User: Fold these one by one.
Assistant:
Number 1:
Amino acid sequence: MGQRVRVCIVAAKYNEQFADALVENTVDEIGVLMPSTRVDLIRVPGAFEIPVAVATVLEREKPAAIIALGVIIKGATAHADLVAGSVTQFLQGLAVEHRVPVINEVLLVDDEKQAYARCIGANLNRGKEAARAAASMVDVFHELDRTMPKDTGRAKKTRHA
Ligand SMILES: Nc1c(NC[C@H](O)[C@H](O)[C@H](O)CO)[nH]c(=O)[nH]c1=O
Ligand SMILES: CC(=O)[C@@H](O)COP(=O)(O)O
């Protein structure tokens, strides 16, 4: 029997009401879409701390997907934009470097109304979206492993050299 699929959620605590709802919706939807999945949850203080936690998880184990969750609400200064831009860039870099899907739902919103709609409301819920994207990428990677085993390219090159 195959190993149980593992998904890791790295979620910021900042803007707690919204961040917690994002986590809850993500976990609930994973339960619906991938019921036998083991879900590990790591909480960090703010969105800025997400990439270092993701990098550490990737260094120590290789889950089928990592889901990054955070809620950045724009303030009076450029702080929110700087944090959001940096987090987004590092998450994509880590995903590509380690070849593990990193789902990015570190949200940059204008105000609490936008945060409510995306974290608590049903229609735009980014927690459910995160779970759907993770489930989809787990399927994509299983299919890639099945149809393109890792050393296929090198083996072909060697044969034709
Ligand atoms: N303003 C928000 C933050 N700011 C905190 C930073 O993420 C970080 O924890 C701090 O700069 C120390 O390194 N974090 C959020 O997740 N959301 C915000 O709206
Ligand atoms: C303290 C923060 O991280 C964030 O709320 C920045 O807010 P501001 O831009 O108003 O200083």
Note: The chain has a mean pLDDT of 94.
Number 2:
Amino acid sequence: MTMQSTDVDVVVIGAGPAGENVAGRVVRGGLSCAVVEDHLTGGECSYYACIPSKSLLRPMELAAEVSRVPGLALDGPIDVAAVLNSRDKAVGYLDDSGQAEWVTKLPATLLRGRGRLAGERLVEVKDKDGTITTLRARHAVVLATGSVPVVPPIPGLAEARPWFSRDATSVREVPARLVVLGGGVVACEMAQALHALGAAETTLLVRGGGLLGRTEPFAGRMLADSMREAGIDVRFGVKVTRIERAADGGPVTVHLEDGESIEADELLVATGRRPAVDDLGLDGEGPVQVDDSMRVPGSDWLYAVGDVNGRNLLTHMGKYQARVCGDVIAARAHGRPDDATGLRDLADGKGAPQVVFTDPQVCSVGRTEQAARADGFDVRVVEYDMGRVAGASLLGDGYTGRAKIVVDEERKVLLGVTFVGPAVAEMLHAATVAVTAEVPLDMLWHAVPSFPTVSEVWLRLLEEYGL
Ligand SMILES: Cc1cc2nc3c(=O)[nH]c(=O)nc-3n(C[C@H](O)[C@H](O)[C@H](O)COP(=O)(O)OP(=O)(O)OC[C@H]3O[C@@H](n4cnc5c(N)ncnc54)[C@H](O)[C@@H]3O)c2cc1C
Ligand SMILES: NC(=O)c1ccc[n+]([C@@H]2O[C@H](COP(=O)([O-])OP(=O)(O)OC[C@H]3O[C@@H](n4cnc5c(N)ncnc54)[C@H](O)[C@@H]3O)[C@@H](O)[C@H]2O)c1
């Protein structure tokens, strides 16, 4: 085991979307940077999460759209092999050389191996041969190690060799019978994708009373209706007591508290994610707490961005935090003021924008009504049936969608917006601008949506509000 030691301005542990973006910003800020990655440069998002899941969902989405347009019909079922090939292409066949080259061309140093904190400003990197390199950071160490799936303590689960999200997004053979545990984003997206690709018997087991717990309740209800209509067995208030699978393979049996059991070919566990802090040299297992400059309180050198800080487990929010973090590290390193607006995370606390790529799509930004009331705002809400908008009716027969705004009555600005419906994802950014920039409603009134687009729902919402 040889030991080498290198000095560098900034060390980033983890080359997912968050870590890569910190590297990009600190180098742009005139600092040297080393990035440590022990698997694939590009992280979970590029190879196992956002990209493959959206690639698997796109055919289902388009098939649903086509079925709503009179005169159009799909010429046969979805070609599953072609979809899986296209997914493989989307993840670059798990070859990260392109992203690795992006890092090295910044220029930054890419070190392959497992990083851990070994002291103040010190990072030890152990490569696959056991060689240890010690990196000494002059200015900062940034943790960007992401998250890993939560494994619920259900008897027999580990022995039953369940699927987690990586298994679902990397699927090679779609199981005919699938049980999905969880009612969050991964469970809903992957249940719909795999059902459309051939998991004819798909059962979604949800312990609570609704789907997508952090969004407006009507969104989860509409999604559950759509899933059931497509033939997915959605069950609420379910407790799994035990799982069984023979050691030599065969079907998995999921036993429920009410005495029923369900047999399936695979069980997908999608019960949330926890920060990837195992063996990172930190005390504690929870998210790494940071201030709004992404720095760990009490330290002047340790930062954390992306899933590992638990703020919002979304790629775009991790990348945003990375931009703040990289820029603030550069400002501090050069002795420049570090309190400019761009050097603070002003977005996470307001409620991150999120698109759930199901059918219907669920798009939200800011606070839900419940969260806004809990935060003490004087709230008024308006809802609108998007099927009544001329642009929506032109998208296909029986367009079903719903929009909701949450208004801060004191300041007359939007606190939250939710759109649920087919093809609403691209409408979300207008809502993000309105919520983030706190555009007064009487100015929003002058943002005229084009006719005949679904965006006219903005006009209808404001009319319903009373403008
Ligand atoms: C199925 C699924 C679908 C998703 N879809 C979306 C979506 O559509 N849109 C969206 O915004 N978000 C989505 N997400 C969430 C998104 O994937 C994460 O928010 C995002 O990947 C977080 O980025 P990150 O850089 O913080 O961490 P990661 O992407 O997890 O990257 C962390 C990197 O650190 C490396 N690493 C960890 N520990 C060490 C160590 N000790 N030493 C060296 N390297 C280490 C890992 O190998 C990894 O490459 C999805 C998640 C899942 C599970
Ligand atoms: N399109 C997107 O933006 C997208 C897609 C996928 C994932 N993600 C991100 O990834 C993160 C992880 O997604 P996720 O779906 O795993 O987590 P989640 O937090 O969204 O949902 C977890 C679900 O599991 C349930 N659950 C938790 N423990 C359980 C237990 N012991 N038994 C039964 N059910 C249990 C919860 O009630 C909840 O329904 C999310 O925070 C999300 O932001 C985003």
Note: The longest strand covers residues 132-143.
